[in-house]
Write a structure and sequence with these properties.
By secondary structure, the chain is α/β, with parallel strands linked by helices. Helix content is about 25%, strand content about 30%. The protein is built from five helices and seven strands. The chain has helices at about 25-35, 55-60, 75-85, 100-105, 125-135; strands spanning about 45-50, 65-70, 95, 110-115, 140-150, 165-170, 175-180. It is globular and about 45 Å long. The protein starts with about 25 loop residues before the first helix and ends with a strand. This is Ribosomal RNA small subunit methyltransferase D.
Length: about 180
């Protein structure tokens, strides 16, 4: 796993040992950032279920202003902090050791341009996250929520998630990526 573009291109990232954390592959990460394009520049990023910090750190390498990384696993948190330290990104990051839903319940005044959701598959955590995000102001008016699920995991965003709607999807092997924005934009 590595940073694939930007000022830290080619730098290797540490991974969490074991099978509990599933980092986004370079292929999927490249596809995500190709879709996002210039939206990354100067963006404020929230990386829920952060794992290794892979997505937020890639965004920072590509010009994001700052990132908040939320992770409840102690082992993953140590890896995130090591990756941030190796890349010298401490001043542009805030790492929180807490459950993603606790963060969403307690930090409703925060607004982000990009929100990454890459929780464990088949646990409906993306749906649960979207329910909370749809009833808050976390997403900036032109912001994008990027959610990863298993390819066979449904994500029915309906009127219950207003004002959010699925704008685009991509399928990459076993992973499906969903790009979600506000309907009113």
């Amino acid at each position: 796993m590595r940073i694939i573009a930007g000022e830290m291109r080619g730098r290797i990232l540490k991974a969490v040992e074991g099978m509990l954390t599933r980092p986004t592959s370079d292929k999927v990460k490249g596809a995500i950032f190709n879709v996002l394009g210039e939206r990354v520049i100067d963006a404020r990023v929230l990386d829920l279920f952060s794992g290794t910090g892979n997505l937020a750190l890639e965004a920072l390498s590509r010009g994001a202003r700052e990132a908040v990384l939320v992770e409840k696993s102690h082992n993953a948190l140590k890896v995130i902090q090591e990756n941030i330290g190796c890349l010298g990104l401490g001043p542009r990051t805030k790492v929180l050791h807490m459950d993603a839903f606790k963060y969403l319940e307690n930090c409703s005044a925060e607004v982000y341009d990009l929100i990454f959701l890459d929780p464990p598959y088949h646990k409906e955590l993306v749906l649960q996250s979207l329910k909370t995000l749809s009833s808050s102001i976390y997403l900036a008016p032109n912001g994008v929520i990027i959610a990863e699920t298993a390819k066979d995991e449904p994500l029915d965003v309906d009127d219950a998630f207003f004002p959010l709607e699925i704008r685009k999807t991509g399928l990459y092997g076993d992973t499906k990526v969903w790009y979600i924005q506000r309907k009113d934009v």
